[in-house]
Amino acid sequence: MHIKKQRLLTPGPTPLLPKALHAMMASDVHHRTQDFQKIYRQVLGDLKEVFGTKNDVLPLVSSGSGAMEASISNLFRRGDKVIVCTAGKFGERWVAMTKAFGLNAVVLEEPYGSAVPAQRVADALAANPDARGVFVQASETSTGSSHDVKGMAEAVGKTDAIFIIDAITGLGTMPLDIDGWGLDVVIGGSQKAFMIPPGLGFLSISAKAMEFTKTCDLPHFYFDLKKELKSAQNGESSWTPAVSLIISLGEALKYIKELGMNKLIDNAQLLAKATRAAATEMGLELFSPGSPAASVTAVKSPQGMDSGVIVKGFRNEFGMIIANGQGSMKGQIFRIAHLGYFDFADLFSVVGALELVLNANGYAVPYGKGVAAVQNVYAEAAFPKVTVGA
Predict the structure, then answer these.
(1) In the prediction, which pLDDT does 29 show?
(2) pTM for this one?
(3) Of 21-30, 317-326, 335-344, 366-375, which gets the smallest average pLDDT?
(4) What mean pLDDT comes out for the span 161-174?
(5) How far apart are CA 222 and CA 240, in angstroms?
(6) Mean of the per-residue pLDDT values for the chain?
(7) Does the bond joining 117 to the residue before it have cis omega, within 30 degrees of 0?
(8) Is pLDDT at 390 greater than 60 in this prediction?
(9) Cα separation values, 170 from 10, 131, 137, 138, 189, Å
(10) Which region holds residue 91: left if phi is over 0, alpha if psi is between -120 and 50, else beta?
């Protein structure tokens, strides 16, 4: 009761891979030397392998939002018509960004907790044949929802538009066949399933999208994708890189390659399934039951209880950091992440803590009920030939 280890259970930052954390201590290397160039080239190659694409993948010294901005400022012209999908706070960020750069945004909006259907994108493209781009979140972590990226890609692929996906929490938690589905720009972030601290954004870019750089007239200087691509071919970044993070990323990518990206995704999806099962077993209501994400599970707070009470209870009693709702959902939902360096032993403790916090605040739930639901999901996956509960 007196020692409390802090545990990150948010959709970013996420728990750090120990080897990646330790690797940062060897960051006293100059970024314009052959030693660092060797590391950087390896990281660039491993990023392509982990993303699962033949397209170039560029790391940027920024959060994922920097890579989102770069995808706009390097590829479009002022006044270009684009289709923007939004069903949460991060969809709203796409809307705000595109408008900030003077694009003509056709906004496809769905209520929080829902997702924009792929058919709405197809219909919008048919109604706006001059649209030059489509923007969406693969995983909308403000609500715990996911989008049908494959279905949307099929619609976009029939047009001259490019498809830009914020996969900052989608990478490593859901299948994203970049080359097979024709995903033109896929954006990631270091502090999500990549299991290292914040500070790096990633961006894969197709040949089709690179053609758009030739006609772009929007201002950009630091986030110059053509310049970054040219520098990367020489094993360098255009500007001073985050050396410690690049070295850390190298270890994380090595771990993901050894594990297998498919198993990293499967891990997140199985944890998400178990979290949803536990919440339902405890009589709680899922916020996004129709299109749940595997990066984070959003749960409605019991009636009459502010979700901030649950967030505070986790932090004060157990040193666990979970996320409140964002925007209009603050106080109404709480969010538990399960991506990256997160396992079932973590989830057993999280759900056990949730049972205690709920009981302490007047919502009665039998101890062990939610934990048992998690155990059942684990047992069915890990011991399929053994009778569960025997």
Answers:
(1) 87
(2) 0.96
(3) 21-30
(4) 98
(5) 11
(6) 96
(7) no
(8) no
(9) 14, 25, 8, 5, 10
(10) alpha
Cβ density class 151-177: b for 16+ within 10 Å, e for less: ebbebbeebebbbbbbbbbbbbbbbbe
18-259 has CATH 3.40.640.10 classification: yes
Beta strands in 30-128 (DSSP E): 56-61, 81-86, 104-109
Alpha carbon 186 to chain centroid distance?
A: 11
Pairing of strands 323-324, 333-337: antiparallel
Place of tokens 């011991």: 383
For 1, residues 6+ apart whose C-beta sits below 8 A from its C-beta are none
Distance in angstroms (rounded) separating the CA atoms of residues 380 and 384: 5
Give kind and range of the element (H or E) at residue 68.
helix 64-73
Beta bridge partners of 140: 145
Output the CATH code of domain 7-13+261-382: 3.90.1150.10
The C-alpha atoms of residue 20 and residue 246 are separated, in whole angstroms, by 10
Residue 172: what residue type? G
Residue appearing with tokens 């996906």: 165
Euclidean distance between the first and the last CA atom of the chain, given in angstroms as a whole number: 32
Q: Looking at 19-28, 49-58, 162-171, which range is the least confident one?
A: 19-28
Q: Which two tokens stand for residue 127?
A: 């109604």
Chain position carrying tokens 């609500």: 143
Q: Which residue from 303, 295, 246, 299 is spatially nearest to 276, judged by alpha carbons? A: 299
- Whole-number Å distance between alpha carbons of 57 and 231: 12
- Spatial distance between the Cα atoms of 287 and 213, rounded to a whole number of angstroms: 39
Phi and psi at residue 57, to the nearest 5°: -120, 125
